[in-house]
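Extended Data, panel c. Modelled sequence:
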Amino acid sequence: MHEPSRWNNALRSLPFAHILQTWEWGEFKRETGGWNMERLAFERHGKVVAMASLATRAIGPLKVMMVSKGPALDYADTELALEILRELERRAKRFGVVWLKLDPDVIAATGLPGADDDRLNPRGLQVTDLLRARGWRFSASQVQFRNTLTIDLKRSEDEILATMSGNTRRKTRVAYKKGVRIRAASVEDLPLLYQLYRVTGERDKFLIRPLEYYERAWREFMTAGLAHALIAEYQGKAIAHVILFHFGRKCWYFYGASANEQRERMPNVALQWEAIKWAKAQGYAVYDMWGAPDVFDESDALWGVYQFKRGFRGQLVRHIGAWDFAPQPWLYHTYVRCAPRLLNLL
């Protein structure tokens, strides 16, 4: 399956389809990260039942392999899941990689750990039991966010708004009363989006890449109809933005930024509400806020962001996370011990 539209259309129909398994994401990683992409579609009786965008990359003299937020398949079909795992394991052995990492979008539990709403997910237990039985290891290196907050968009706007915390609803009203206006962005706004993102990185002390990296990601996904950006303005000047990626049943809040000025006007809260309404209007079932802490206390780097997001009263979702298959266990354990030093040398 070598055509972007055919790949995406088949992927869109599968359970656990994810934006990071789309054709465009594979091309983005190939061109910006040096990953070699191999796209696998598995059929039964002429129908595609599973897909995996398999990325391989050299790290010095070694090679690693990854399926980000995949594979996409019906994990209730244990026989199918087992068949796909066996095929991926065969390829990992054949290519001689140090590890093959899977990070399927499978839910392990919902709710705050240890709280009244803490609920284990039977499907997640089934998948992790299968992985363990085949010798996979839970990975200490979680590439994507393991936990997130999701908002059910099948409810009415009034129901979603009523569920939010009183403080978040108040801030939404404050933003509009204080003159914040929200508009859709276009590819012509990409330099402006990057400038706001750079300011946010400097203020919040996180590393950002050059303009060309983000422009490539944002432009190509917007052009492909897989991304949508919103800009908050005050008196005609951009003061904040969000960039949404969307595919299948979900819309994800991937990027957000704000200026150092006019923050008291609450543009970020207004942007989230407009993003939720936009995703619902487009027919998406879930709005994924993309990221929640691993440790639910102030020691976690995401704690402040989590406090902001939880005001929208989404459901806390804990995924099974990333799992590693090691064709040569001795090499894998050596790599895990020595990888930080090796990467520093490179």
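Residues 4-145+321-345 form a domain with the Aminopeptidase fold (CATH 3.40.630.30). This feature is highlighted in the accompanying rendering.
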